[in-house]
Design brief:
Order of helices and strands: HEEH
Number of domains: 1
Distance between the termini: 50 Å
Largest sheet: 2 strands, antiparallel
Strand order of the largest sheet: 1-2
Shape: flat
Structural class: alpha+beta
Oligomer: single chain
């Protein structure tokens, strides 16, 4: 079997890979903690939202808050990325 040239040379590290891995680990840990918190706190809670009040399970309240938080975070990242592009 013929060896390919450069096959035994070490590969150069991919830029930003460690940062991406750290984000994945942090995101996974946050998701696990969120699920654990929601499952441990299964009781109903009273929620006051401006003029509306209702009773809902903690799981639903945490899920809705997580969705809104993720959406706001995604918008903030997108906006700051647009600013960085315009500054170049």
């Amino acid at each position: 079997m013929a060896e390919l040239p450069g096959q035994d040379e070490p590969r150069a590290p991919v830029p930003g890979r460690h940062r991406r891995d750290a984000r994945l680990v942090a995101g996974g840990m946050a998701a696990v903690l969120l699920v654990w918190f929601a499952l441990v706190n299964r009781q109903d809670v009273r929620v006051h939202f401006w003029v509306v009040s209702t009773t809902a399970p903690v799981v639903a309240v945490v899920a809705v808050a997580a969705v809104f938080g993720a959406a706001i975070g995604a918008l903030a990242v997108r906006r700051s990325a647009g600013r960085r592009r315009r500054e170049r």
